[in-house]
Amino acid sequence: MQETAEWIAVDLSNGCLRVWIMGANGEPIAQAVTDKSAVIETHSGFETALLALVAPYLAQDHRVTCVICSGVAGWNVPYVATPCTPPQRVIAASPAFADPRIKLYIPPALKQMSPPDLMGGEATTIAGLLRSQPEFDGVLCMPGLHTKWVHISAGEIVSFQTSMTGALFDLLSQQSVLQQSVAGTAWDAQSFLTGVGDAMGRPQAIASQLFGIHAATSLLDMSGGAARARLSGLLIGLELAGTRPYWLGRHVAIIGVGDTALHYRTALAEQGVQGQLLEAPPLVLAGLCASYESTQNSAK
Amino acid sequence: MQETAEWIAVDLSNGCLRVWIMGANGEPIAQAVTDKSAVIETHSGFETALLALVAPYLAQDHRVTCVICSGVAGWNVPYVATPCTPPQRVIAASPAFADPRIKLYIPPALKQMSPPDLMGGEATTIAGLLRSQPEFDGVLCMPGLHTKWVHISAGEIVSFQTSMTGALFDLLSQQSVLQQSVAGTAWDAQSFLTGVGDAMGRPQAIASQLFGIHAATSLLDMSGGAARARLSGLLIGLELAGTRPYWLGRHVAIIGVGDTALHYRTALAEQGVQGQLLEAPPLVLAGLCASYESTQNSAK
């Protein structure tokens, strides 16, 4: 007989939906992931996608708690102002889940008033990190569509800065004149480093350096791997130029999944910073566990 | 009875298809424009769109010359290397036009080897400018998806630089997290100037300044007009920071259509540069006329 879920942890970051089915002993009894990011951007799309993953673990006459690390478009999530500890106390998500077997909880989002900035699900990851390393003091680099640089000290999020690096890479590589240049999955490590250096040296030239990839492909037979790596290098180099106060002379941990985190580590290493690589999912799960405990404590 | 075309001038720049039906006396007898940019990106789409505009002016048993200022995807256009005069001698376009009543001619594209850069139809506009102002000495700013800055001296294109400013604006305003922030057509002039100044002052921060528009919309109730103007200001300011050697202390002419050219003039004026505004279509037509004459001369 199929075991039923004690509660369910839901990660909706990095363009995928990942769930852990949690057992009575506090350990996952199963996990599943779907990368259909397009369908989970709306509430009904999210609801369908979540049910497809977790339905086998639901009991018919029992409402199970789902703790989710970030909001879906249309949800009204309150903000907590930084500096602050990562918020662990969760709130019932609105709008409510249509299926009566599930009750959704979500942590508040974070806001920084000056300069204005916003953080969603990343705060749950930070809560997870501070659960296992409460003494962490330094800077987190969290690559993604909207990469976060976060200064952590004394258990608090002191300040943070968001760069649209991943979004720019996706838009330019999929829908601009560079689309043909960067097609494929090849990668040229030297072109990446040259791109990082070019953007850090002359960040004001980025809009023409980007078009230069198209020109170099046409005139100098630049390969797809070199073009793709140079595009990534230019954008990450631009971000490093703009976030220098965060990483210069600091302890930096890069929290990510896959190649992008490695590229950030490579780029930082060239600047003399040895970034510590941390896998994101275990930290997200740890943060979601902390949030789940808050629902239990408040119920007592 | 409908007059027939002596030849046809075709402008395929700025996301629209514009034609002038030229009479025997060298003057336009009609003109028409369509903005269906999506359908004219392919050869068959272009052919259909062009025929829809010019068919009434074609004779049944006569092949008319169409001179077009830039290529369509899939056409194999040769390059001329800068420095050079804008090429006026046109070549028969490949692939050929399916309708036997039309023969297409196109000028070569321009290439610059170091730094690598490419120019298409803008060279025809420059040819048109030099036809009416052969003594022009200075810099052209040609806003567009891929804005061109061009140094002109002694009748030659000395060097040029392309920035993907318009493409970045379109992608970010239509398909990024900023989409909601910048919706509408309102415009806040002060936000534009502040954006120009912020990007020129700290171009390395552009990727976080862009996300800051989203944050300011959410946290500070920034209006749509302020957000839209700030996005434009940040991107034009970034471009001005990267093209300073082109415009600093030079005579600058801005060739464009519509509000974008005015925004460039406003931004340059803040830097103490009084850019001269020139409407693009008359210059394109003058350049196409020069190219048409070359087909007549070579036929003699």
Automatic annotation (TrEMBL), chains A, B:
It holds the Pfam family DGOK. Its EC number is 2.7.1.58. It is an enzyme of class 2 (transferase). It comes from the Bacteria. GO terms for biological process: D-galactonate catabolic process. GO terms for molecular function: 2-dehydro-3-deoxygalactonokinase activity. The keyword Kinase applies. Gene3D superfamilies: 2-keto-3-deoxy-galactonokinase, C-terminal domain, 2-keto-3-deoxy-galactonokinase, substrate binding domain. Keywords: Kinase, Plasmid, Transferase. The keyword Transferase applies. This is 2-dehydro-3-deoxygalactonokinase. It comes from Sulfitobacter guttiformis. The lineage of its organism: Bacteria, Pseudomonadati, Pseudomonadota, Alphaproteobacteria, Rhodobacterales.
